[in-house]
Specification:
By secondary structure, this protein is mainly α. It has helices spanning about 10-20, 50-55, 75-80, 105-110, 120-125, 125-130, 140-145, 160-170, 170-175, 180-190, 195-200, 205-215, 215-220, 225-235, 240-255, 260-270, 280-285, 305-320, 325-340, 350, 355-370, 380-404, and strands spanning about 35-40, 60-65, 70-75, 100, 130.
Length: about 400
């Protein structure tokens, strides 16, 4: 049994259907056609593809509780369908029907004497039909189909449980991926969980920040498997498990951003903090407590909203105190305050409108600079020319300070 032949546009779903059909290959001049293709799937790995498979394999029948219109029913119903005794269930004479058996292994079906009563109507089909299974007799799992070079796609996969889990999680997206794309990546290195998680979470940093900002809201909107894929990426990339650790721990790690992955996340947050508005209060709660003996504990940093608010409070006091200073001293003090608080305008809280005084002090420093040189001239015309030249800058700075 060779690997499946594909074209540049063949998708995983196309290859799967081709493999199912190929399992029934027989010599038309020598033997009778198989009664059915039996597709055991003890671990229910392929079940999520059933709606898609039914569209491209109209002769696919499924074992399970009877569902009208879904070509699904118990074992005795399947036997009746094979015998052309079910109205509306038929196919051309040269088509071999496929019986998908979720929750059933090939071994269970082959153990005729110990076969569960509900499966016994299908037991004899193992002699008149063929199995869609691996050469070694095991059920086809998703990972096995992707990597086997005997009936599968022959791709190189990382041999770890996380990769297998990621494949199962991404099956809905994976079905539409061209086999050629995976072959190209597999030729460079074995495909791992990141490759398959990326099919669901194409921007894991955005998803992480979105989840931290509004966990319940994000999960309510996301498609199946997306949160699980995010958790997988967080565990491997950020050393953080959203389920186990919770949002508060994640926010603390984001605020500290010690590791490169968290630095990247923090940079993304600071670029557009309004997109993740829920992080404002979460970061406030996540600031680590003061530790006795920590020489850096009193240093205020951009990560924590309360630090920015404390800086705003200090600046407010300093500006009020200027009223008692001589004008030259006030001008110098404004320049010093501007230099001290200038960096805060790059903090995310300024973009959220939480640093109005840090914005205002820039314009007040400009005002101090502009008023250091009085208008020059002995006549009204001279004063007008002086104002039009540079004097207007003082008024503009005052208006900008009021608007900040």
């Amino acid at each position: 049994m060779a690997t499946i032949t594909t074209t540049p546009t063949t998708t995983i779903l196309d290859a799967l259907c081709a493999a199912v059909r190929a399992s029934a290959a027989y010599n038309r001049d020598d033997v009778v056609p198989p009664a059915a293709i039996l597709w055991p799937d003890e671990r229910w790995e392929w079940e999520r593809l059933l709606p898609r498979l039914r569209l491209v394999l109209p002769h696919l029948l499924t074992l399970g509780p009877y569902v009208q219109g879904a070509r699904t029913g118990p074992a005795i119903w399947l036997r009746c369908a094979l015998a052309d005794r079910i109205a509306g269930i038929n196919w051309p004479a040269d088509i071999i029907p496929v019986l998908y058996l979720p929750g059933v292994s090939r071994t269970t079906l082959r153990a005729t004497e110990d076969c569960p009563p509900e499966l016994r109507p299908l037991a004899e089909l193992q002699y008149r039909g063929v199995f869609f299974s691996q050469v070694n007799g095991k059920d086809w799992t998703l990972a096995a189909f992707l990597q086997s070079d005997r009936g599968g796609l022959g791709l190189r996969l990382a041999k770890d449980a996380a990769t297998a889990t990621s494949i199962r999680r991404a099956i809905d997206k994976l079905a539409d991926v061209p086999v050629a794309d995976l072959e190209a990546k597999s030729a460079i290195r074995p495909l791992d969980g990141h490759d398959f998680d990326a099919l669901i979470v194409d921007d894991p940093v955005d998803d992480l920040l979105t989840w931290l900002s509004d966990p319940k809201g994000a999960q309510a909107l996301w498609e199946a498997g997306r949160f699980e894929a995010l958790c997988s990426r967080c565990r491997s990339d950020h050393g953080f498990d959203p389920v186990r650790d919770g949002g508060l721990v994640g926010a603390e790690k984001l605020g500290l951003h010690d590791a490169p992955a968290w630095k990247t996340a923090w940079k993304r947050f600071t670029a557009s903090p309004a997109r993740y508005a829920g992080l404002f209060e979460l970061l406030r709660r996540a600031k680590p407590p003061f530790k006795p003996g920590d020489l850096f504990a009193s240093i205020r940093v951009e990560s924590w909203p309360q630090d920015n608010e404390a800086e705003e409070g200090d600046l407010r006091k300093a500006l009020r105190a200027l009223a008692a200073d001589p004008v030259p001293a006030a001008r110098k003090r404004l320049r010093d305050l501007e230099a001290a608080h200038n960096p805060r305008r790059d903090w995310p809280w300024a973009k959220l409108g939480r640093s109005p005084l840090a914005e205002a002090v820039r314009h007040l420093a400009r005002l101090a600079e502009a008023t250091d040189t009085p208008l020059q001239g002995e006549t009204i015309d001279d004063l007008i020319r002086s104002y039009v030249g540079d004097g207007w800058r003082a008024d503009q700075a005052a208006l900008d300070a009021l608007a900040a």
